[in-house]
Task: inverse folding
């Protein structure tokens, strides 16, 4: 292109060429394989081209609880807590929180504590003045009653909540190109009253359908089921933090819009994600499941939570949520093994 023809270009077209030139430059640098700078460059590209778009889409998922005011996450100076809910709603059935996990996030150290509460745990449902399965709190009063009930059960406040519909989970996994799951033998759901499916062992990558069935499988123990939920979360974190997933963020936000709710401000979610992305190491996730003993009350099956497990979970939360607890002094969960 000659100098005269360049001068004849309209300003808008010149600006467009300049923008695409920057895009191509960033792509070239990101693809150059320079390991040391790959995370900062990914964040730079995100800030330049995706940040505003993502924040706008996250507004669709922002849902503060009734009667509560927006509260920023002061993640730069202290840990924060959140209740994670996996909501499973089948056709013609009320929605229930199939997964209930109390989490403590320590962004500065890049560490996350997950306390899983089995869905059939027998406890007082706050606002109903009765005892029932803890996951029924969601059916009775949504995120608010679930949060109130878990807080009463553990004796600790959950500052935030995040809920994802399991139907959206399948689409998220497929958008990410699948996830790695440690399945060493076939998982077969075959009870006459359950949905039938088989997950073949030893696959390098599992698609959204298999991943959804992995977290839904219910024909062994409730403890094993909650451990599978933790394994799935670990697999998702590992997959999302891979550099090649940055370009898929807009698609993931579209999926999240209809299937994800939280009272964490969109700008805080973006800042937290960038902090984890630029950390020296991937986030470390520590898990603990509150065990229980199965029993029948009025011919209904419940889990009676082990008091020692509940007390130990409370100590873990106290250790992790205290900003004065040094990283080296954190109480780490005892090892628990899937049977």
Result:
């Amino acid at each position: 292109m000659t100098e005269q023809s360049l001068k004849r270009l309209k300003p808008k077209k010149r600006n467009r060429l300049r923008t695409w030139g920057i895009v191509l430059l960033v792509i070239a640098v990101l693809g150059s394989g320079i390991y040391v700078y790959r995370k900062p460059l990914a964040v730079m590209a995100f800030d330049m081209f995706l940040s505003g778009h993502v924040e706008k889409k996250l507004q669709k998922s922002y849902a503060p609880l009734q009667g509560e005011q927006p509260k920023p996450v002061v993640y730069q100076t202290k840990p924060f807590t959140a209740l994670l809910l996996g909501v499973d709603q089948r056709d013609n059935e009320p929605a229930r929180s199939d997964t209930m996990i109390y989490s403590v996030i320590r962004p500065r150290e890049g560490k996350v504590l997950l306390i899983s509460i089995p869905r059939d745990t027998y406890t007082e449902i706050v606002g109903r003045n009765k005892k029932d399965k803890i996951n029924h709190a969601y059916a009775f009063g949504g995120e608010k009653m679930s949060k109130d009930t878990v807080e009463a059960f553990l004796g600790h406040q959950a500052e935030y909540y995040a809920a994802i519909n399991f139907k959206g989970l399948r689409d998220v996994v497929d958008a990410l190109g699948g996830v790695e799951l440690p399945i060493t033998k076939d998982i077969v759901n075959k009870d006459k009253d359950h949905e039938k499916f088989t997950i073949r062992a030893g696959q390098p990558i599992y698609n959204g359908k298999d991943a959804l069935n992995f977290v839904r499988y219910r024909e062994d123990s409730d403890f094993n089921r909650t451990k599978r939920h933790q394994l799935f979360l670990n697999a998702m974190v590992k997959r999302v933090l891979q550099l090649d997933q940055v370009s898929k963020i807009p698609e993931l936000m579209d999926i999240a819009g209809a299937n994800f709710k939280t009272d964490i401000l969109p700008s805080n979610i973006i800042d937290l994600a960038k902090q984890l992305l630029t950390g020296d190491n991937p986030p470390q996730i520590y898990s603990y499941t509150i065990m229980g003993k199965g029993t029948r009350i009025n011919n209904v099956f419940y889990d009676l939570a082990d008091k020692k497990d509940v007390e130990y979970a409370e100590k873990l939360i106290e250790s992790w949520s205290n900003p004065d607890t040094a990283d080296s002094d954190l109480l780490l969960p005892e090892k628990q093994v899937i049977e």
